[in-house]
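User: New here, please read:
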Amino acid sequence: MVFRNSMRSIFRSMGKTALFTLLIFALTLALSLGVSVWTSVAQFLDECNEYFTTIGLIEYMGTDYPGDTRYDPAMDQALETLDAAAIASDEAALLWQETTRSMGYIDGFWRTDNFVPGRGNSVFVVGNISYNERHDQYNAFVIEVLYSLQIRPNTIILIDGDFGAFEKDHYYLVFGEVYDVGSPLLNLRGPAFDHAIATSLGIEVPRIQDISSSETDQNYLIPGDSLLVKAADTLQVTNNSVLVSETEDLMSGLPFHQEELWITSGRAFTPDEYARGDQVIVVSELIASRLGIGIGDKIALSIAVADQPGVYSSYWVESGFSYQSAFEVVGITNTIADKSWYVYVPKSADMPSSPFPVGYTVGHVIVRNDEAAAFNARIESMLQDRFRLTIYDQGYSDVAIPFKTILRVSKIVTGVCVLVELAVIILFGFLFVYRQRETSETMLFLGAGRLRVTGHFLFGAGLISLIASSAGAVAGYFLHDGIIALVAGAAERFTLIDSRYSNGNLSISRTLEFAPHLEIELFLYVGAAIFAMALLACMTFVITTFPSRRLSQRNPKGPKKGRKTSLLRGGSLKYAVLSTFRGGTRTLVVPVLAMVVVIFFGQLASTVLRYQEQLETIYDNTTITGSYTDIKGKQIGGLVLSAYDIANLYHSGQVSTLTASISKPYYYLGTSILADGTDLNIPPLYVPASGFAAESLEGEIMRGPDLTAINDIRTSPEFLFADTILMDFMEGYDESFLTVPSGDPRVFSCLVPSSLMEEQNIHFGDTIRAAINDPYKSQEYVDKIHRHYDLKVIGSYEKQGATDTIYVPLSLFFDTSLIWGAGQVSAGAPVETISTGYTLNEAHKEELLSTTFNSTHFTLADTRSLSVFKDYLSTYGYSQVHNIGSVRAFLVLDDASFNNAVASVKQQINYINTLYPFLYLLVGIIAIVTSYLLVVSRKMELAVMRGLGTTRIRTFLSFFLEQSLLCLLGTIIGFLVWFLVWGPPMRLHLALTAGFIVCYFLGSAVSVRIMNHANVLTILTDKD
């Protein structure tokens, strides 16, 4: 009986039943989809954190960077200023690993790579020596080889004439550098034996040792205590050494992290092996092949550590090794040229390592993926001169940042859905239960009992909510895949960082597909939760319908004292004003609401403006520079860059400044003219008549320091990463002399290292002569000479590397008018761009195509057009790091910090653009609903007015004008408060408030009109 009556009650109010069924269904669907998107994106971000590993690489940008085995004393000294503890203890750091390397040796392994130190250094026995006077060379027969990578016994070698003195029919043990000049025979020259341990012991290895002996059948005897034998034994180890890297996490090391190296067989180290420092090792395929070993085999690894800098100066045969032990091979990597001799072992306290830095990598830190940008900002601010932090995130930010935005939006939308769902459920319980409290009282009076009354209401309401919530949950499950597809598409639109050509995108990019799979149980849980809340709301309202056990003891009140009737004229307006003053608490609702909305909209508008101002500040206060680099994004000098491509880049309209350099090795000839004008008549560098001698001289020139033509010394590879450059100039000169145009007499001025000035006794105003490897027939000297330049010394600088680079204006080697225009200095923004008519004639184009620069650096004209500039680079075909384009020139922009700052602000703007429309809509709905509820609450008053003969128009105007006046009053008060506290309102603030007023007026008008057209008796008898 209870259930049947409950069903009848539902069907008696079909409109209300259908309305709430649809509302609960729609909100359950929205909530289940919101929860599913939230869950899916959260799961995907968790997968990203597992799949991607972010590391921060700390490097020292020395003058020989990126040499991976170099020792730089400047770096060694600078490391004392590096606060490694601060890096390791940073809140985003998971594991800090300082670079720990040593020279190792595995007996039986040999190297043939181009990175062998002193590749040509050899020790061998020669005999049958004869002198070739024409070529100034010795011809010798190689009898026995103690060590050499290139020389074999029973071959002929040509020894430079200045190598030393040889006697006929004698046998010699020789040490020298073998080199190839393109002929079938190899040559030998005599470098010094550069070895720190030998030098510290006062050992000077000779080039020649006469070992002739008549006491042996072979007519020579090699002394066992010969220094040359010791040098050969030392070279045997150092030139076939391996580089031992100790690690606490192999796969986070840069080569493995960037997938240059990977395990081809076996495995990486286990956590227990790291913890114990086990004697296990990972080697390259080349090492495994040459040793004939595999997984599980053991190899004898020796390590040499010395108190001398330089990895290859760690071993001297008489000093021996510092450590020797057997290691089990657990993994084998692929072989790449520059790391084929690297081996990796777990870090152990028992294993020695070089006390001096090896290479320019200071260390790397594993960083929490989602905190990389903040970590970068904190650590970069504490790094001093030449230290650089590079973030490698394997593409995590490109993948995760859009989904983080979506996750936050989905959380907000889900929260809004929950609030709306609660409001609807409460309203549902109120209308379906509490508004029928008379029914509850009647049933109780007839003896139905509270349990039956509760069952009567909960069955009907529960059936509606069960059907609606179940249907919404199931519909959400079937619509989920489509929503996920929309989310994936939205992720592309939410990409905040254009990482093309960015120094924040030097990492490889791994891919992870967003393809979540959710079971139907999740959706059913959402439906069940809504069903439970609906029942709870109904149960609460059922309980409130039960009468209290104790009767109220309220004192009876007599009739209220009537107020004096107002005599104001005006009809509807008069009634509206009177109703406003007599409304009591009801009158305050609308003004307070309007005032709150005005202040709320003001806060929203000011938030939008604040973020826009922050974005503009970032644009205005940031300078973005760019450089040409190599495929790994490491090298910025020693490149081969087309001047034609660079000219097009400069005149693209996107670049404000451009610097370039051309470097040519030089041979210093001396001071040609003193500052007082005295001509010292030094000869040019003649090309030797002998082909072998000419090639030898050419090789010597090419090994010399650089004569660098550049238009800004601060962007040279030597100084680009330096905070300061110490320079000194003659009066009337400064570093701007490097920008002079072609034809300017200052073209033949130069800036030289102060150490070279001291060494060669050079003074300001002197003219020095430097020759380059460009032989030609000179009419002045009536002979073939190497081209030379007489350069006036007008300044000096403190060099930061080991080489004596001489800097000259770019126009010395290049006609700067081809890029900057005739007579213009090679600096500043272009006068003409491609869009304003910049063109090249064929002659200029051909000259540019035949010219190459060795380094190029530029500055963007406007940070706001960064994406436009990247579009230009992409369209032109420039290559990105790890991504080769049609133009084999790689560019990198120093925009990572800028991108992170802009992305942070744009993320907030995206939230605003996504969330605020919902808030605007919600405020509009609140305005309409509030106006409706306030008008409907006075339907009895309207019915009385209508019953007393008031026309519909007057009734409409009376109620509408009252609501309008209250809304406008609250709006005016709100703007007054805003003006006094925050200042004048903004245009957006005014527009949003106007929208609220329109919504409120519209809601009031519609509500009054609906009630006004209803039958008076219907209004009086309506319970809802």
